[in-house]
C-alpha cells in the first residue's frame, strides 16, 4: 500500500498557508483512514504487528506502579546478566522499574562495538526516535539503537543496523524473542503517543556495581566502563534519565557550560562546566568507594576473564529450556538456535546436547566461536507465518510519515541478519550443522538433508482495537509540523544458502577462567577507552516487580519478574 496522499495533502495545506491546527486536523483525518486500511483483515501486516495493544496484565502492572500507559520510558540493557529493563515515569515524576525481560541472544564479548563486522553489541547511551522504530524488521519487530552516536564517531567507530529485535539470533544486536519485542515495541510506541519525543537506551556490559568493576579490574575497557558508570549513577541518584552530552571524546552527564556561549562537542576539548547542586558530591562518594576497593583487591579476589571465546550470551531461562524443552519460557524459540560457545545449531524441540549446555554456562571456552548464526524462523512467529515485506516507496512509508514531525533524521531499517539454516544428512536429530568454515575438510553427503522439526503454530495475536487510537489521534495535533518524510531504505530478503554437507560435531571441553570532581570542571583530559581512570561507585539497581511464569510447568531459575508467554491481548 502506498501513502503518497498523506504527504501530498500536507504539502497542499502548507502551500495554502493553513495554520498548524488545520494541518493537524487534516493529517489526523487522513491518518485515521490509513490506519483503517492498514489493519483491515491483514493480521500479519507490519502496521498490524506494530499497533497491537498491551496485555491486560501489563496494563494492570502499569496502574499498580502509579504509571500511565503513555508515560515516558527508559530502556537499560545488561550484557553479562542478559537482561533488558524497561523503566517508566510515575505520577510523582520519578522513574521506576516496570519490567525485566531476559535477552535470548547477544553476540561478541563484553566491551564496546569498534568496527563493522566485529560482532560486538553496542555499549553506551543511545537515543531512540519514532523514525528508528522498524515494523518491517526481518526479525518481527525492531528498533535501531542509532549506533554510532557522537561519542562513537569521535573515536572513529563504525557499524550499522544495530537493533533490539525479535527472534533469538544476533550479529551485534540484542535478540529478545518475538513475543517480548512485541511488548517492548508497544511500550515505546505508547510513550511516543503520549508525547515523548525520544527515549533513552543505556547499554552496559554488566550491572554497574562496585563489586562488578572490581571483578573486571583487569579488563582494558575498565576506563570506558567507569565513564558509563557515571551515567548509571546519575540515573540512580536522580531517578531520571541523565542529560547526555559529549566533549573531549568522552561522555558527560547533566553538565552545563559555565559560559553560555560555549558548546559541548564530542571531538573538541571540554569547556568549564558545572553539575547540579549536590550531584557532584554524591558521585564523588561513589567514585571513592570504587577506587578504594579496586586498589585493595588482591590475588584472593579472582578477576573475570577479559575474553571468554563464547561469542555473547543467553539468559539462563532460555538455556534451561534448551536443556528441557518442556519448561516454559518468556517467548517462543525458533526451531534452531546456537547457544553461546557452540559452533553448531541445536534443535529447540528436543533436549540439547549436554556439551552445548556446559559450554554455554562455562566461564570460557577453548576457542573463539565466530560462525554464522541460524536464520530467523519463517513459519512460527506470533501472528502466523512471516512473509517478505515490500520496500517502502522513496517518498516514505506510513510509519515514517506518521512521525516525520518528530524524528530529526531517518533511520535505516534492519536488513535480514542471517541466511537460512537446515539440518544436514547424517547429523544427530537435535543438531543442525552450519556451513563449513574456511579450512574445514570437505565431507560427502548422502540422501536428502532433513529439515529441523517444525514447531506448532502459535495463536493469532489481537489487532489494535478501534477504540485504542483515540489518544494517538488527539496527540497528532501537537506533532505534525509539515516537514517532508524521510526516505526508507529497502528491506533485504533472507539469503537462500545452499544445503551444507554433513560434518560430525567436534566435542570440546571448557577451560578454566583465568585466574567527584569539584562542581566547576576545567577541561578534563580525553579518556582513551583502554586507559585506566578514576571511577565512581553504585549500589545495585532495584529488582523487577515479580511476575511468575504461568502454567503448571517447572519453574526456571531467574524467572521472577520476567515477561511471561501469552501476555498479549486476545480481545478483538
TrEMBL record:
Pfam families: YkuD. InterPro entries: LD_TPept_cat_dom (IPR005490), Transpep_catalytic_dom (IPR038063). Keywords: Cell shape, Cell wall biogenesis/degradation, Peptidoglycan synthesis, Transferase. The active site is at residues 165, 173. It comes from the Bacteria. The keyword Membrane does not apply. Residues 429-449, 508-546 have a biased composition (Low complexity). One of its GO terms (molecular function) is transferase activity. Residues 429-454, 483-572 are annotated as: Disordered. The keyword Cell wall biogenesis/degradation applies. Pathway: Cell wall biogenesis; peptidoglycan biosynthesis. Residues 73-204 form the L,D-TPase catalytic domain. Residues 498-507 have a biased composition (Pro residues). GO terms for biological process: cell wall organization; peptidoglycan biosynthetic process; regulation of cell shape. Belongs to the YkuD family. This is Murein L,D-transpeptidase YafK. It comes from Ancylobacter aquaticus.
Amino acid at each position: 500500500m502506498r501513502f503518497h496522499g498523506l504527504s501530498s495533502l500536507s504539502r497542499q495545506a502548507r502551500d495554502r498557508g493553513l495554520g498548524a491546527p488545520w494541518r493537524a486536523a487534516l493529517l489526523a483525518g487522513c491518518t485515521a483512514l490509513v490506519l483503517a486500511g492498514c489493519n483491515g483483515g491483514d493480521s500479519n501486516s507490519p502496521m498490524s504487528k506494530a499497533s497491537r495493544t498491551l496485555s491486560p496484565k501489563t496494563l494492570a502492572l502499569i496502574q499498580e506502579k502509579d504509571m500511565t500507559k503513555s508515560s515516558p520510558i527508559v530502556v537499560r540493557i545488561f550484557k553479562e546478566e542478559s537482561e533488558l529493563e524497561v523503566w517508566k515515569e510515575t505520577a510523582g515524576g520519578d522513574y521506576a522499574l516496570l519490567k525485566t525481560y531476559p535477552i535470548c541472544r547477544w553476540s561478541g564479548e563484553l566491551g564496546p562495538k569498534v568496527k563493522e563486522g566485529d560482532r560486538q553489541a553496542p555499549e553506551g547511551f543511545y537515543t531512540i526516535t519514532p523514525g528508528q522504530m522498524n515494523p518491517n524488521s526481518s526479525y518481527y519487530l525492531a528498533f535501531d539503537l542509532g549506533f554510532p552516536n557522537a561519542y562513537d564517531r569521535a573515536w572513529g567507530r563504525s557499524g550499522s543496523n544495530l537493533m533490539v529485535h525479535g527472534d533469538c539470533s544476533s550479529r551485534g544486536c540484542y535478540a529478545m524473542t518475538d513475543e517480548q519485542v512485541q511488548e517492548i515495541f508497544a511500550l515505546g510506541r505508547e510513550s511516543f503517543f503520549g508525547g515523548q519525543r525520544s527515549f533513552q537506551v543505556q547499554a552496559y556490559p554488566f550491572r554497574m556495581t562496585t563489586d562488578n568493576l572490581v571483578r573486571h579490574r583487569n579488563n582494558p575497557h575498565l576506563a570506558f566502563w567507569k565513564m558509563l558508570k557515571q551515567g548509571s549513577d546519575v540515573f540512580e541518584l536522580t531517578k531520571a534519565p541523565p542529560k547526555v552530552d559529549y566533549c573531549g571524546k568522552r561522555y558527560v552527564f547533566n553538565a552545563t557550560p559555565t559560559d553560555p556561549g560555549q558548546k559541548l562537542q564530542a571531538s573538541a576539548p571540554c569547556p568549564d562546566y558545572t553539575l547540579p547542586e549536590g550531584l557532584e558530591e554524591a558521585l564523588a562518594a561513589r567514585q571513592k568507594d570504587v577506587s578504594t576497593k579496586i586498589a585493595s583487591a588482591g590475588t584472593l579476589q579472582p578477576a573475570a576473564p577479559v575474553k571468554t571465546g563464547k561469542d555473547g550470551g543467553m539468559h539462563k531461562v532460555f538455556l534451561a529450556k534448551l536443556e528441557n524443552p518442556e519448561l516454559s519460557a518468556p517467548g517462543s524459540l525458533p526451531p534452531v538456535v546456537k547457544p553461546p560457545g557452540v559452533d553448531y545449531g541445536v534443535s529447540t524441540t528436543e533436549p540439547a546436547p549436554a556439551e552445548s549446555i556446559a559450554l554455554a554456562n562455562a566461564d570460557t571456552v577453548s576457542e573463539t566461536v565466530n560462525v554464522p548464526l541460524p536464520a530467523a524462523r519463517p513459519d512460527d512467529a506470533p501472528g502466523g507465518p512471516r512473509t517478505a515485506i515490500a520496500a517502502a516507496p522513496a517518498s516514505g512509508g506510513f510509519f515514517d510519515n506518521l512521525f516525520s514531525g518528530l524524528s530529526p533524521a531517518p533511520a535505516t531499517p534492519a536488513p535480514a541478519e542471517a541466511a537460512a539454516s537446515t539440518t544436514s544428512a547424517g547429523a544427530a536429530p537435535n543438531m543442525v550443522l552450519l556451513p563449513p568454515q574456511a579450512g574445514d575438510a570437505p565431507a560427502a553427503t548422502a540422501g536428502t538433508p532433513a529439515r529441523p522439526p517444525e514447531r506448532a503454530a502459535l495463536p493469532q495475536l489481537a489487532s489494535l482495537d478501534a477504540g485504542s487510537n483515540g489518544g494517538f489521534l488527539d496527540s497528532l495535533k501537537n506533532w505534525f509540523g509539515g516537514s517532508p518524510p524521510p526516505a526508507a531504505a529497502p528491506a533485504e530478503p533472507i539469503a537462500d544458502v545452499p544445503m551444507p554437507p554433513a560434518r560430525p560435531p567436534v566435542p570440546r571441553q571448557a577451560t578454566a577462567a583465568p585466574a567527584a570532581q569539584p562542581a566547576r570542571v576545567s577541561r578534563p583530559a580525553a579518556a582513551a577507552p583502554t586507559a585506566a581512570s578514576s571511577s565512581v561507585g553504585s549500589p545495585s539497581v532495584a529488582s523487577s516487580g515479580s511476575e511468575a511464569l504461568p502454567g503448571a510447568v517447572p519453574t526456571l531459575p531467574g524467572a521472577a519478574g520476567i515477561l511471561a508467554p501469552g501476555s498479549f491481548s486476545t480481545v478483538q
